[in-house]
Amino acid sequence: MLLPLLHSADQSAFQQIDIEEHSEPKLGPTLRLFGVTDNGNSVLANIHGFRPYFFVAAPSGFLNKDLEPLKDTINVSYMMLKLNQADLQGIVGITAVVSCVVLNRRSLWGYKGDEQVPFIKITCTDQKAIPKVRDKSILSNELAFYLP
Asked: Is the pTM of this model over 0.90?
């Protein structure tokens, strides 16, 4: 017999078994983490407010002042892609990218020791926008403006 789990007193440490994306009308994108505690209790943790993101190597010469124009041009390209696909439902006011930030990180491509290089962290509105934003027809065209 499992001991009852007291949310107010017990720690919330658990082993994650599965994760799924969910969208709640009033709360927006939500991650659902399914798991189990050391005692065998099943756990469902709802994470609200998570914004999916990915990194792309920053081109040489890319500056912080280029972040807002990059975000804006990606969003315009995303809207144009949606228009070309005749997916007009809800297109007005919808953006794909919420923010762009330059961060120094270690590259996974080839061993470079502890050397850190600049990457652009692109945060999207939801998981469904990421494949379209990462698509070469959008992202490569927008970053091409910053290549020497």
From this structure: no
